[in-house]
Amino acid sequence: MLRGKRAVITGGGAGFGQALCVGLAREGVEVHFSARRADDIQKTCSIITAEGGSAKGYICDLTQPESISQFSSQLLFSDKPIDILILNAAQWLSSTLNDQPDTEIINTSVQA
Length: 112
Prior knowledge:
Strand order of the largest sheet: 3-2-1-4
Radius of gyration: 15 Å
Distance between the termini: 27 Å
Low-confidence stretches: none
Helix content: 40-55%
């Protein structure tokens, strides 16, 4: 059912985002993902290609509007549509929402 689809995942370089990338690739999905560090991109791509899957990683810092713009522009070079979009990455807020300034809450929801 997922084979041949194209997915875009933010925060795919580690943790849950990486697990999403690997899991979808195992189902035959062409995975495109963002990460902040090149090493994390390499790790995720290595796992996926070792299992015969297809993945491409892009450097993107979701706290930087120019980085987001560059990431989205790179994704649009393909003629294949994006079938699955998973917005996994977001700014981390520790403590409770009541302890956070409004600007931090707004920035987190805009980035996610």
